[in-house]
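sry for the spam today, last one i promise. struct tokens for design, 665 residues
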């Protein structure tokens, strides 16, 4: 039987304290005599605000260096001076939890700001944190949130967090951020010795306690290693300040465990390797360092549950995956429900192995090949081809008898669709680690060639088209409106409408996706430029163009207007060709990309409209004293649509200039 909130009140678990504010309670400020002398090197944080509750967090390290249990105090107040306390409670932690503390506080007042801090023996005290509760479900309240993703510690400094904090302090009260939605890659399990272009990283993660090293990388492989990463990332003052300033609502992507993982499998060098203990360790570290309300909700999520895995074995895959369930639903007043999904733990393996397209003489994975491989036995209404229509046409279809691919897994997908259908909120925010927009190359538009429209990256939703169509069609059939995906992962800004099918010419929009660039991770254009410049000169014209004033990111044209427009522009420099030869019909609904960006997103939901800003920062590779400047902001407006209507996305409009090719010199 799942634990309910009622059964948990007052319970002290091995990992989380459950505390209730009594109505009208005011506490004494007198400190207990036997507290430990402590440091709080990773600051404080709060997460998953409810109308009457929130999760608070810190890491309390004994100054003595002892590995024994430590005692500390939590204080909660409605004023920043803590002159009047609503709660003062003694807590404890120890080395078995890496000295982290999670405290779930219930009995709070809806839509209210609170201040909190943790204390040890005088004079040890944490920084003060500020959090807030959500409005009640019926409360008409505009929602202001920030959304973020991909914060590699080594590749840049956290100028995005610093700028977000500075802008929020200067904003009018009604425009300030209520909470931050973090869409994954909070840490990176892999450290690279240098950037792809050979230049030095901005800063370095200290050596792992264990780790596996190659000449070019270092990887976390143990619980101590993953804890080490969270401690290192949270040593940054700007990330610390952001977590102290706003409650965070988090999901994960791949780098919290391993690059391009699925379930408990890693995929280095294109080979799937079961690493169940490593997945278990990654899950435990996430749970210890990310304050999230899991067991405190019913059915959709649960706290970390330790498992004993003697060795990697097929049965251990499920045990490691089941150790932590993070998909869940939150609400924010009358206007917004927030539905968070896990796109890694339940997904099926990639539909195509590395190098499969090349074995058929294809430069990239064609859209049709991905659809056949991912659709499996369900392709073409249950009539998949016996052989693949590529190469000489004789290769047997390896997916003919395979179940269709899934990123969410059947159980999570059913929960997601039922949750969306049952939501009474006008806006349903899908907190989705990966972009839903089809990011394809219309290679078939190149004259005098036999190229096929191709999928650039099958690790994302583009590699799971069967499930995208299932989800979009079900949303349409259910009459579910107001669905907006906020996504990350691809190290680029983007915006576009989502259709019930990306292959039917008459398919209409059903939902909208905004994807946010990385806080600090290298923009995707930098990786493409390095690869094209070094190994793929024939591909270079679709990626960049060299001019006297620098490098132009032609890849943006390839995505928006198509490869013929990109190739022609690369050869002529004539900006008008983008509109003459575009748009890219393989990417229906795509309105905006900026593949050179670092930054963050801002979204404001009210009764009738969503406004989104995608903020692109100036370069943040160098350390700074003052927050780096904003390069430009792309703004979008989306009126709420109702049953029988379709989403009508307006924008982008720009502040502070526009990125290429929206502004071609």
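last one done:
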């Amino acid at each position: 039987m799942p634990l309910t909130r009622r059964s948990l009140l007052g319970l002290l678990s091995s990992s989380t304290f459950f505390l209730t504010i009594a109505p009208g309670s005011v506490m004494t400020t007198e400190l207990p005599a036997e507290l430990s002398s402590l440091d709080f090197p990773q600051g404080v944080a709060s997460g998953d605000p409810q109308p009457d509750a929130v999760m608070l967090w810190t890491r309390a390290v004994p100054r003595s260096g002892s590995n024994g249990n430590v005692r500390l105090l939590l204080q909660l107040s409605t004023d920043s001076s803590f002159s009047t306390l609503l709660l003062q409670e003694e807590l404890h932690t120890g080395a078995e939890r890496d000295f982290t503390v999670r405290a779930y506080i219930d009995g709070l007042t809806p839509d209210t700001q609170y201040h909190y801090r943790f204390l040890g023996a005088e004079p040890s005290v944490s920084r003060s944190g500020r959090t807030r509760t959500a409005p009640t479900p019926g409360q008409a309240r505009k929602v202001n949130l920030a959304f973020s993703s991909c914060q590699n510690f080594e590749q840049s400094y956290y100028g995005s967090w610093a700028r977000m904090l500075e802008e929020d302090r200067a904003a009018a009260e009604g425009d300030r951020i209520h909470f931050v939605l973090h869409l994954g890659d909070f840490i990176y399990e892999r450290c690279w010795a240098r950037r792809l272009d050979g230049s030095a990283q901005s800063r370095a993660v200290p050596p792992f306690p264990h780790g596996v090293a190659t000449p070019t990388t270092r990887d976390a492989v143990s619980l101590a290693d993953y804890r080490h990463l969270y401690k290192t990332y949270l040593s940054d003052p700007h990330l610390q300040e952001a977590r102290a300033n706003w409650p965070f609502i988090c999901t994960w992507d791949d780098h919290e465990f391993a690059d391009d993982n699925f379930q408990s499998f890693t995929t280095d060098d294109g080979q799937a390797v079961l690493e169940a203990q490593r997945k278990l360790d990654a899950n435990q570290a996430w749970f210890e360092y990310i304050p999230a309300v899991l067991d405190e909700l019913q059915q959709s999520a649960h706290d970390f549950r330790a498992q004993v895995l003697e060795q990697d074995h097929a049965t251990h895959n499920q045990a490691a995956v089941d150790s932590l369930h993070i998909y869940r639903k939150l609400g924010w007043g009358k206007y917004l429900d927030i539905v968070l999904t896990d796109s890694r733990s339940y997904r099926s393996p990639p539909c195509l192995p590395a190098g499969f397209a090349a074995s058929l003489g294809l430069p990239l994975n064609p859209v049709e090949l991905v659809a056949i491989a991912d659709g499996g036995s369900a392709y073409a209404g249950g009539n998949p081809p016996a052989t693949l229509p590529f190469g000489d046409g004789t290769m047997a279809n390896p997916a003919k008898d395979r179940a269709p691919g899934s990123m969410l897994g059947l159980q999570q997908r059913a929960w997601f669709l039922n949750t969306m259908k049952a939501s009474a909120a006008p806006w349903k925010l899908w907190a989705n680690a990966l972009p839903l927009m089809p990011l394809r190359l219309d290679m078939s538009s190149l004259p005098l060639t036999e190229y096929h429209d191709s999928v650039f990256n099958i690790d994302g939703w583009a590699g799971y088209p069967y499930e995208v169509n299932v989800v979009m069609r079900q949303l349409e059939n259910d009459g579910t409106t107001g669905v907006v995906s906020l996504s990350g992962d691809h190290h680029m800004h983007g915006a576009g409408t989502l259709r019930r099918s990306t292959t039917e010419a008459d398919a209409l929009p059903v939902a909208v996706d905004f994807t946010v660039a990385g806080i600090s991770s290298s923009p995707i254009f930098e990786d493409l430029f390095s690869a094209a410049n070094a190994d793929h000169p024939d591909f270079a014209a679709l990626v960049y163009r060299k001019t006297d004033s620098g490098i132009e990111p032609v890849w943006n044209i390839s995505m928006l207007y198509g490869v013929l427009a990109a190739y022609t522009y690369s050869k002529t420099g004539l900006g008008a060709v983008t509109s003459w030869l575009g748009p890219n019909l393989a990417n229906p609904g795509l309105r905006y990309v900026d593949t050179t960006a670092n930054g963050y997103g801002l979204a404001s939901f009210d009764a009738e409209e969503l406004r989104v800003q995608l903020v692109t920062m100036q370069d943040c590779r160098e350390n700074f004293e003052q927050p780096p400047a904003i390069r430009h902001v792309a703004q979008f407006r989306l009126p709420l649509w109702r049953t029988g209507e379709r989403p009508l996305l307006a924008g982008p409009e720009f502040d502070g200039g526009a990125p290429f090719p929206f502004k071609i010199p």
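Residues 276-289 form the longest helix (14 residues). ok im logging off now
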